[in-house]
Structures are given as structure tokens and as C-alpha cells.
Write the C-alpha cells for this entry.
Amino acid sequence: MNKIEQLFQQKKDILNIYLTAGFPKLADTVKIVLELEKAGVDMVEIGMPFSDPLADGPVIQHSSTEAIKNGIRLEMIFDQIREIRKHSQIPLILMGYLNQLMAYGEKAFLEEAAQCGVDGLIIPDLPVEIYQKQYKQMVEDLNLDMIFLISPQTETGRIKLLDAESRGFLYVVSSSSITGQKADLQQAQKSYFDRINRMNLRNPTLIGFGISDRKSYEAACRNASGAIIGSAFIRALEKEGLLKQHVHDFVKSIRS
Amino acid sequence: MNYSPDKYGFYGDFGGAFIPEMLYSNVELLRQNYVGIIESKSFQTAFKKLLQDYAGRPTPLYFARRLSEKYQTNIFLKREDLNHTGAHKINNTIGQILVAQRLGKKRIIAETGAGQHGVATATVAALMGLECIVYMGEVDMARQAPNVARMRMLGAEVRPAKSGSRTLKDATNEAIRDWINHPKDTYYLIGSVVGPHPYPDMVTRFQSVISREMKIQLLEKTGRDYPDKIIACVGGGSNAAGAFYHYLDRENVELIAVEAEGLGVDSGQTAATTQTGSKGIIHGSKTLLMQNEEGQITEPYSISAGLDYPGIGPLHAHLFKSRRGTFLGATDTEALQAAFELTRLEGIIPALESAHALAALKKIELHPGENVVINLSGRGDKDMETYLNHLDEYNNDKNGK
Ligand SMILES: Cc1ncc(COP(=O)(O)O)c(C=O)c1O
């Protein structure tokens, strides 16, 4: 069992915060993750900035562009994670696009990720069928959790397939929208979440995309094992002032 | 050699559908239905009728006498520039709008570079009474302003793409994002043989009318239904795919694809994908693309907005790797020269994209008695501002000689 699986056994109402590596400044990644942990966040998803992040909204895309301008590289991200691991055992997920893995060499990438202390991976443009054929064995041998996404359009049979191939948790996209759009969790979403909860999936679920404040976080917790917050946190980091303060203020605004 | 994709959409190593789950149901709906729809009698009847009566097909195969004399060979121009809206793009948009209707979609989105695909999409959306939104890079909106005006007159909303190099790649990203946000009512009408399976195959099928007509016309004009060479420019590769399609298995026909070298392949300001690219994933397809060692996709450059794209469709990547296709490049300057040459010899102003295909005449071995078809993918109306900016150079060139 790895750190992500342990976390879900021990806790409810998981708060997973996304940040873009190398943003706002190149060296901020380590500081932000350590402050997030101090502020009580349960898990962190580190985005590997990509030039063409199709599944991300404008806020995360902008932060990725800035990070690339700052000079972020995959090697640096691995080094930053090594540095984090000297001080913290918080579960870490690496999020990025398949082209980045291909450019690095998929095998080398997966080995390096596992070696530096990554626990899970989210690769939104990796089709599950390709995963099964080409990567699953390697990922599982390295004790990494591959996390797949489902959306309101995902049919029942496919949800079962994605659940069967996911380890750690299943990422429930709150509405069919790219990250950063306000979600009205109350209404149309409810039946979608109920449908998923009735399926008795083998993985716990986290709701992501459009979770931005205490209200939407709490709604997510009523319908799943917790939530993933990305764009709203990136926006908070863009404000003037002390980074450390932004991190603590933000987490406090979600749950105290 | 097989040039049709397998059931996962792969041409050899290239293709597939590398898309986020939020797009899966839409792409799957299309994948499961496109062949059935396209092969149905009602579709074929409607498609052929519109190509003929609306787009103006068949387009002529014109023997370019003066150009042939200059290059000492027989040069034919496949006149896609004479289509309604001024380029081959309408072949594809007519096909896809009929598919969209049959899938019950009400809202049409598209990306565009030169604006030709945007205009062709706005045109068929108007024809069918459907809402239409076109994403276009800010840079392209400026350099292809006449087409922005046409799209607006046709009732489409043109939304600027402001990220990256603000050209075709970025417009495509925005269109895909829009599709993710509108999973139910929206049809994404892609403009080239790019994107996730089944788009490359579907667009190739719609453009294959170009080489279907060529066979008949060549037989009539030359006594053989095939030429020795076919030359076409490649942005994403749809006009080339259409011009090559019925000859893919005819190994004696040389297929020549011309990419945009911009300021030169080594200048860092180029869109020549096969010369400067490597294998990767762009817009949901595994193919050749321009990228750095970190897998960040390079911002391309070409004077021609329609060729200013850092990838090529998976069929072309396969043709390149298998060596079935010959891939060449033409710089901005060579394309401009070729455009002026055609204009002064034949009285035809080509699109800047098509001018890249014409520029290949100076780069290949030509023999007397050979038959060469150049796919003249579009007309140059949209490029007049660029051409006029270079008019003096070519007038001086001419006087100097
Ligand atoms: C006239 C013309 N030719 C060629 C192209 C390039 O597209 P493709 O390579 O898909 O034919 C364009 C694209 O805008 C175009 O307008």
C-alpha cells in the first residue's frame, strides 16, 4: 500500500490542492508544498507545466506558461520533489501530459518519479486502453498509483473500467468543464454523484474541477471522499504579498 | 502497404485518440457512427449534390501551358481555388456539417489558421442554419483580415486565441477547450487531417474527391488515369491527403508534400515539421511535431497562416516514415516567388499555402513528357495585403532579368 491508499484509509474529507511546479517563481514549489502541509492539506498534486495543456482552463494554462518562462524543467521538478521528501511525507501526485513522458522516455520518467518520492500520476490524455497495453505493468511494479478521470458523460461500463484500472482514488470531474469554471454542485451534479456512489466502486472518489471555496468543498465532501482544488489556489498565489500567508489564508478559507 | 487506419485509428505508428476523458463520449459517438453515416445512401446523395451544385465541383484540371514551357514538363493545376469560398476546405466542411446534422448537433465550433476553413465552416453553418463559433489566433486575425470579415458577414462569431504564438495551434487548443465545456450540443468541425481518430480518416475521405476527379480528368487529357508526380502543400495535410488518396497504392506515382520552411529550417522560425520535428502527441494524435527536448511544443512560423502549424496529420507522418511520400520544404521567399511566377505566367493568383507547392517545381527533377499535377489548394484573395507588400521586389526582379 502506498501513501495515497493509506491516507484514504485514515481520513475522510480529503483536501487535495493542485499547484503548478515553478510558479509563481521557479523555486517556490518546495516552499508551497511544505506550507500546504503545515496548513493541514492532506495531499498535493504537482502540475508539470506543459505548453499545450488541453484539459486545463485559462488560470492553470497561464501559470504553466509563466513557469515555462521561468525555466522549469522536468529534472528540476524531480529535484524539488526530492527536496520536499527530506521534510515531508505528504502524498504527492504528479500531473502532466503524455507528450512530456514520451520526450523524457516513459520508462525513465516513471522510474525517476517513483525514485524521487512521487506516489501517484494523473495523465489526462493517456487513454486507458494504451495504459493497459504499454504502461500498467511498469507503473504497478514501481508502486505508483495511476489515477483516471471520469466525467458526467462517462458511461457506467466505462466508469467500471476506469475504476478497475485506477489505484488510490478515482478523479470525478464535477461537470463537463475544464478546470476553473464555477460549478453549481447542488443540482444537476447531484444525480451524477449519486449514480457513482451507488456503483460501489473499489476506489474512493475525489471531486475536482470547479471546486473553489468552502461551500463547494463541503458539497464535494458530502458526495465523495473529498475534493481537489486547482485554479482557485493558483489565483490566490497570484496576489501581491507573502506567499506563505496566501497559502495559509487560502486553506483557512476552505476549512479551518 | 496499408494506408487506412486500423480500428484504433493508427497509420503504422501514428494516430490514435489521446484525449482527456471529458472528450471521450463525443469522440466515441463520432467514431462509432462516422462510417455508417458517410456510407449511407442519403448522405452520399446529399454530399454529392452539394459538392456539385453548391461548391461547384468538379473543379477543373487545367493544363498550364506557359508554366509547362518554363519547366519543360507537363504541368496540370487541380483548381481547388475555384471552389465556392476559394479553397479545398469546403469539401470537408460540407461533409462534416452533414455528419453533425445526423448526430443531432446544434452548435458548430471550428479552428482556423488562414481563415479558409473558418469561412468554409461559417458558410455551411449558415446554409444549415446552425450556430457557429470560430477560434482564430490573434496574429492570424490580423494577417488574414478579409476572411475574418467574411466569417462575420456569414453570421459566425470569431473568437481570438490569445495564448502561445496566437496562431493555428492555439486556436485548435481553444476549440478543444470549448468542446470540453459543451459536451452535449456541440460538434467540433476540424479543418484538416489532424486531431484524434476518427477525424484524420474522416477528413481524408471527404477530401479524397480531389484525386477521384483527377483520375477521370487525367484519363481524358493524357490517356492515363494517373500522373507521374503530384505536388501539394502540407499544413495539417488535408489538401495533400485528398490529392494523394486514390494514388496511395500506385507506387509509380510520386507523392510530393511541401512544408513551410518559414525563414529557413535552421532559423528557428519555421513550420517544417518533418525536417525539424519528432514523434509526440499534439491535439490528440500521435504524430510528428516540433518540440523541444522537454516535450514542449514549439511555436512555429510561416508567412502562410494555413501552414503555420507545428504538426502534420498521422497519415503524413506515416507516409514520411515509410518513405511513400517525398517531403520537401519551401521558404517564405520561395513561396512568394512562386506566387508571382504563377500569377504572371498564367493569370492565377494562388493562396500563399498553395504557392509553397508551386515552389517545389524548382526543387525536383522534371522530365519532358512527364505529367505533374499541382494541387492548387486555394486562391490568393485573402493574401493580397502580403503580396502587395512584396510587389516591388518582384516587379524589380522582372525588370532586372
Ligand atoms: C488554401 C489553403 N491551402 C492549404 C491549407 C493547409 O491546410 P491542409 O494542409 O490541411 O491542406 C490551407 C489552410 O488554411 C489553405 O487555406
User: Anything to note?
Assistant: The two ends of chain B are 47 Å apart (CA to CA). Residues 11-51+89-202 of chain B form a domain with the Rossmann fold fold (CATH 3.40.50.1100).
